[in-house]
Design goal:
single chain; about 650 residues; Four Helix Bundle (Hemerythrin (Met), subunit A); Beta-Lactamase; 3 domains; six-stranded antiparallel sheet; 14 helices; elongated
């Protein structure tokens, strides 16, 4: 485009310069002609002066020998002026014809001067004077006619030349106008051409740019030329095609990443190796488009990597046939420096049928990925017979990523299994600890329960003896009713003890927490024989909650029993209060005892930690903490500012 602009501007400048040069030449020529015309006009003035002088001489001639003869000197001067005028004319003319006429004019002037001289000096008769006068007059008339003729000829030529110069000026004017007009037209044509040559590619490039900006990658323009716009259009086309190619690669990679995400994400949520085997076999086969896919795991007893089942493209018999020795796997692993191994030419690989398969399900090409949980090679992902042809580096790279995720997933599954076993052992140990704590509590309560049961039994025996001596039926029925009530009382005490001692799994059900607390309070009252220990109960109206009643009774019994122990020396008050917040039931058990030492408070929920020496087991509060935690609640303990301790238990309400 730069060359075109320079060419167009050069054309415009050349034409304008040519027109200007022609105009300048015409102006120079016309100026020269005008100068000549001015000179001719000066000559014409001289001729007119000559004619006037001749006319003056003729007039003066008529005055000779008259009363006007005193002007004789003037006549002489006029005749002399004629000579001067002829000399001036002769100086300006170089044409032979004009010079010849001027010479003839000078001869007539000399003749006129001679006739005039005779006439002026004549003293003869009047006839002679008139004759000389007529002769001089005729000479002057001839001189005047000749001068007039020459002036007429010169005037005609002056007019012709003037007309010619005027025409030349008009021609110059026309040339200038034409030059300007053509220059304007050429300028307009150049502007049109340049505008079209600029706007056309710019418009096409803008159209392509809009298409690319709207997401239509790969759009190109058909505009081509040898200018910078052509190079720009070619660059835009290359850029658009490159963007489309890059976008396709990005979409392909995004599709692969999406597939990897969908494939690997579930792997980390599986807790069973069998689930991982199934997901790998079918998920990887679909993702990498192969006919066979499965996982071989190391059997430490046999020293072989055995093909697991299920497997994609293989039945159970075929999967069981495939096995690779540990040494062969290590050779294949080190053959590619630990990277996934591609074998597209099986006949030259020397692999056995136990690796490649046989008959109709034999592999044509293979790809191995290595499963290394904790850095130990314990598995091999086997892919066979790619549907799209041979395995390539992209398949190799993707399988490497999948293998790493499978390694982590298997490691997580193993950790999960180990954790499950440990949790099972811990649960069994916890249940045993709970049972131990229950038995310890039962042993501690046995004396109180025996004493409490002894009272109704004594009453039963006493009233039974009275019945033997009673004859009044009404008294007998009253005594029987007392015996019945005391029997129910003893039965309830034994029933509560049995419910507490019974070993059961967590049995969640809808319960009324206030009723549970009342049952525990009635049981703890058996221990409270000291009149200085008082129990206060305040129950708010609470909705039902989900919980195990027996387990919660054990928690409340442990805390209340600890409160009774803290008041055994000086007495005090135990306050049981219930309330609620937005989502929880709050159970508060407070006492006015000696409190818990600050250095002991952080350790009260540690198993086997106790301050009761020979009386305590150190299991009551830890077990209570675990029970509340299993109910998705929490337990808090604080020393009150005045004195004593307050336990707060938070249990979730039913939604």
């Amino acid at each position: 485009m730069k060359k075109k602009i320079i060419a167009y501007l050069a054309l415009l400048i050349a034409f304008f310069s040519t027109g200007s040069l022609i105009s300048m030449l015409y102006i120079t020529f016309t100026t020269s002609e005008l100068e000549k015309i001015i000179s001719l006009h000066s000559v014409e003035i001289l001729r007119q002066d000559l004619v006037i002088k001749i006319q003056n001489v003729e007039q003066d001639l008529l005055t000779v020998h008259t009363e006007l003869s005193d002007r004789l000197d003037k006549i002489v001067l006029n005749v002399q002026d004629l000579d001067s005028a002829v000399d001036n004319c002769k100086k300006c003319h170089h044409s032979p014809l004009i010079n010849q006429k001027l010479d003839r004019l000078r001869m007539h002037i000399d003749k006129f001067k001679s006739s005039l001289s005779y006439y002026i000096t004549a003293s003869a008769d009047d006839e002679r004077v008139r004759s000389l006068k007529m002769e001089a007059y005729n000479a002057a008339s001839g001189l005047l006619d000749m001068t007039t003729e020459m002036a007429s000829i010169a005037n005609k030529r002056l007019q012709e030349r003037t007309q010619k110069v005027i025409e030349q000026v008009k021609s110059v004017q026309q040339i200038l106008v034409l030059t300007l007009l053509i220059s304007l037209l050429i300028g307009l044509w150049i502007s049109f051409r340049l505008t079209r040559n600029i706007l056309n590619p710019v418009r096409q490039l803008m159209d392509v740019s809009r298409k690319i900006a709207s997401g239509n990658l790969g759009s190109t323009t058909s505009y081509t030329d040898s200018t910078e716009f052509g190079e720009l259009a070619a660059s835009v086309n290359d850029m658009s095609l490159s963007l489309r190619e890059s976008n396709q690669k990005i979409l392909q990679n995004l599709s692969r990443l999406t597939g990897l995400y969908r494939l690997t994400l579930p792997l980390h949520s599986f807790s069973s190796v069998n689930e991982i085997i199934r997901e790998v076999s079918f998920g990887v086969a679909e993702f990498l488009s192969v006919e066979q896919c499965g996982l071989l795991l190391l059997d430490h007893k046999s020293g072989y990597f055995e093909h697991a089942y299920p497997a994609f493209g293989l039945d159970e018999t075929q999967a069981g046939f495939l096995r690779i020795s540990q040494s062969e796997v290590l050779d294949l692993y080190h053959a590619n420096n630990g990277k996934p191994l591609i074998i597209n030419n099986l006949p030259e690989s020397g692999l056995t049928e136990e690796i490649a398969g046989k008959d109709g399900w034999a592999a044509h090409n293979l790809l191995f990925g290595w499963v290394r949980p904790k850095g130990t090679l314990t598995g091999v992902i086997r892919l066979a017979n790619r549907r799209d042809g041979e395995f390539d580096e992209e398949s190799n790279r993707l399988l490497g990523i999948i293998s790493n995720n499978v390694s982590v997933a298997i490691e997580n599954a193993q950790l999960h299994e180990d954790l499950r076993l440990q949790m099972q052992e811990l649960k069994e140990a916890q249940e045993q600890l709970v049972q131990t704590a229950k038995l310890a509590a039962i042993g501690e309560l046995a004396s109180y329960v025996a004493h409490e049961i002894n009272n109704p039994l004594t009453s039963i025996l006493g009233y039974a003896e009275l019945i033997k001596d009673e004859s009044n039926l009404e008294n007998i029925m009253r005594d029987v009713e007392i015996i019945t009530n005391e029997s129910f009382r003893a039965r309830d005490i034994v029933q509560q003890l049995l419910e507490f001692a019974r070993r059961r799994p967590l049995n969640m059900q809808e319960i009324d927490i206030n009723s549970i607390l009342k049952d525990v309070v009635s049981l703890i009252r058996v221990q409270v024989k000291d009149p200085k220990i008082q129990l206060h109960e305040t129950y708010a109206e609470l909705p039902l909650i989900m919980g195990d009643p027996n387990q919660l009774k054990q928690v409340f019994l442990n805390i209340m029993k600890n409160a009774v122990d803290s008041l055994s020396e000086n007495g005090g008050e135990i306050t049981i209060r219930t309330s609620r917040n937005s989502a929880q039931a709050v159970i508060e058990i407070a006492d006015t005892g000696h409190g818990i030492p600050p250095d002991v408070l952080p350790r009260i929920f540690e198993p086997f930690f106790t301050t009761k020496r020979e009386k305590g087991t150190g299991l009551g509060l830890p077990i209570s903490y675990k029970i509340i935690e299993a109910h998705q609640g929490k337990i808090e303990v604080k020393n009150r500012t005045d004195r004593g301790t307050v336990f707060r238990i938070f249990l979730p309400l039913m939604r």
